[in-house]
């Protein structure tokens, strides 16, 4: 099964400007989840969806693929689902089709590989699940 990891990271935060790039421990916030996701053996492909050039550059420096999203999918009230659909449609054009979509929020810097792998295993092991989420 092909697992696609998507990190939706828009640049237009109003409460905390540039929050996805805000340094946490001297490292941009988004880099924490990217580095964790890259270590997950289940993820076949990892992409960042963003409209923001600075976020795109940081993701690329981390060795993560970037899919530019339209500005209309980067608004305060934009739900995550249309963003995910946009990524899937863009990857479909390249011939890549994922069996499982994993969304990792860039604002979850303390997510672990173990968290991600347990969620994916739970999904695989229970044929009745159509989604799995982690909360704390």
Give a short summary of the structure.
The chain is an alpha/beta fold and 136 residues long. The chain has helices at residues 29-38, 53-61, 80-92, 113-125, and strands spanning 3-8, 23-24, 27-28, 43-50, 65-68, 100-103.
Describe this structure in words.
The protein has 136 residues and is of the alpha/beta class. Helices cover 33% and strands 19% of the residues. The protein contains 4 helices and 6 strands, in the order E-E-E-H-E-H-E-H-E-H. The strands form 2 sheets. A 4-stranded parallel beta sheet has the order 5-4-1-6, with helices on both faces. Strands 2-3 form a two-stranded antiparallel ribbon. Helix 2 (53-61) links the parallel strand 4 and strand 5 (65-68).
């Amino acid at each position: 099964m092909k697992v696609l990891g998507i990190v939706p990271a828009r640049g237009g935060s109003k409460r905390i400007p540039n929050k996805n790039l805000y340094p946490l421990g001297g490292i941009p916030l988004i880099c924490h989840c990217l580095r964790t996701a890259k270590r997950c053996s289940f993820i076949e492909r990892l992409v960042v969806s963003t409209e923001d050039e600075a976020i795109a550059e940081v993701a690329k420096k981390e060795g993560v693929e970037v899919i530019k999203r339209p500005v209309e999918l980067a608004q305060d009230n934009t739900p995550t689902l249309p963003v995910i659909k946009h990524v899937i449609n863009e990857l479909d054009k390249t011939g890549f089709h994922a069996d499982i979509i994993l969304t990792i929020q860039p604002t979850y810097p303390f997510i672990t590989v173990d968290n991600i792998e347990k969620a994916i295993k739970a999904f695989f092991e229970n044929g009745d699940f159509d989604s799995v989420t982690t909360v704390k």
